[in-house]
């Protein structure tokens, strides 16, 4: 048993998410075969060690605000190429959440390190989120035949989203005590509540992508899904291990895959 798959499944259960048994099986297998670095003790230790330096931590909040905004735009574009409109709507909601997360990271920075934000940085932070809301977002277009992405490519993308959202959840769990440690006592309830929202949202992103994966298994693609989950867990692990050497990917809750 791997701690990353078990942690993800326990958060899904905590929030009463309905998860297909077949999905649980393939997730467990993928994490068993390619144990994710973000579930290892050294990874958490490295994160805490880096986050103790406030300059690194400030930068990681800025980076996360930028990455969540980029992720929101990318995910919206992806939603426009999905033929299955049940899946496309879930992906659009995901994009709206990430747009909000970008603003939340900027807000966290503003609450914890107000003196670090000059007018230029503030102006820059405002550009990160695409400002998508449930009532305000780009028009929803049903893809034309030439825009439609091949079903297998869609599912490959959703599998990567799923595994990256599990990583995002773990990053939020590492982030939480650090945010609380930097918070002034009067800001602690607010910071903690924001962390609660981020953790809940990332769990819901795992849930919806797991639902799509489960549906695809149900449609008769079990062995393809199994192989792809194992392969993508491997490529994701490699991608972030390369980044660790540069010490710049450790705190990122990134969503984009390439
Ligand atoms: Fe996020
Ligand atoms: Fe997310």
Question: What characteristic shape results from the CA principal axes?
Answer: globular
* Major pleated sheet: none
Given the structure, what is the number of helices?
A: 8
H/E element string? HHHHHHHH
Low-confidence region ranges: none
Bound molecules: fe (ii) ion
- Beta-strand content: under 5%
Helix content: over 70%
- Distance linking N and C termini: 28 Å
Number of E-type strands = 0
Q: What would the average pLDDT be, to the nearest integer? A: 94
**Count of all domains:** 1
Please write out the topology.
Elements: H1 3-14, H2 21-33, H3 41-51, H4 54-79, H5 85-112, H6 119-128, H7 151-182, H8 188-246
List keywords for this structure.
258 residues; mainly alpha; 8 helices; globular
């Amino acid at each position: 048993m791997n701690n990353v798959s078990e942690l993800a499944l326990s958060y899904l259960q905590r929030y009463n998410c309905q998860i297909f048994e077949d999905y649980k099986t393939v997730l467990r297998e993928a994490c068993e075969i390619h144990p994710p670095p973000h579930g290892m003790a050294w990874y958490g230790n490295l994160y805490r060690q880096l986050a103790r330096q406030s300059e690194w931590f400030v930068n990681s909040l800025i980076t996360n605000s930028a990455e969540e905004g980029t992720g929101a735009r990318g995910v919206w574009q992806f939603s426009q190429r999905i033929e299955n409109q049940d899946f496309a709507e879930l992906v659009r909601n995901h994009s709206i959440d990430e747009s909000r997360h970008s603003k939340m990271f900027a807000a966290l920075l503003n609450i914890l390190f107000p003196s670090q934000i000059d007018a230029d940085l503030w102006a820059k932070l405002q550009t990160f989120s695409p400002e998508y809301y449930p009532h305000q977002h780009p028009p929803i277009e049903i893809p034309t035949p030439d825009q439609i992405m091949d079903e297998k490519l869609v599912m490959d993308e959703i599998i990567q989203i799923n595994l990256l959202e599990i990583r995002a959840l773990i990053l939020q769990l590492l982030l939480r005590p650090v945010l609380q440690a930097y918070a002034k006592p009067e800001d602690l309830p607010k910071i903690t509540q924001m962390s609660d929202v981020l953790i809940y949202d990332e769990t819901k992103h795992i849930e919806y992508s797991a639902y799509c994966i489960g549906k695809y298994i149900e449609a008769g693609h079990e062995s393809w899904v199994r192989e792809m989950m194992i392969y993508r867990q491997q490529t994701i692990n490699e991608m972030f291990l390369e980044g660790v050497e540069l010490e710049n990917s450790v705190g990122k809750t990134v969503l984009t895959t390439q």
